[in-house]
Structures are given as structure tokens and as C-alpha cells.
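Lab notebook, design round three. We kept the backbone fixed and only want residue identities now. Task for the bench partner: fill in a sequence for the structure below.
Input C-alpha cells:
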């Protein structure tokens, strides 16, 4: 993927995140993009799924530590 296309793909993901899932931090979306970019040609999809699962677990662990209303 060329630099312009990569920038466009990431920009599109971030814009969609802002519109449809504004509670998800930009840094999480950037990490999602990086995982998918790094693993897009892997024959074995398990590594991508494991990394995505770990990222989701980390995000949920952090967000559950924040008190409601605070």
C-alpha cells in the first residue's frame, strides 16, 4: 500500500470512529489499524485475532477502571 493510501485508510478509520464510536480513543483505533496492517498478509489469522483480543481486553480493563461519571 502506498503512503497516500495508508494515510487515507487510517484517516477513514479515524473518521468512522469519531462518527460511529466516539467513546473509543483514537490511540486504540490507531493500534487496530497497525495490527491489521502488519497482519494483513498472514496466512494464519490466529495471530491477528489474538493481538486484537489482547487490545480489546486492555481497552476494556482500562475503561472499567474509570469510575462512572468521572
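Proposed sequence:
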Amino acid at each position: 500500500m502506498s503512503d497516500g493510501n495508508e494515510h487515507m485508510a487510517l484517516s477513514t478509520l479515524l473518521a468512522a470512529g469519531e462518527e460511529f464510536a466516539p467513546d473509543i480513543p483514537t490511540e486504540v483505533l490507531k493500534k487496530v489499524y497497525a495490527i491489521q496492517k502488519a497482519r494483513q498478509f498472514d496466512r494464519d489469522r490466529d495471530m491477528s485475532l489474538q493481538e486484537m483480543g489482547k487490545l480489546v481486553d486492555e481497552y476494556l480493563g482500562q475503561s472499567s477502571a474509570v469510575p462512572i461519571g468521572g
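Keep this in mind before ordering anything: The mean pLDDT is 87.
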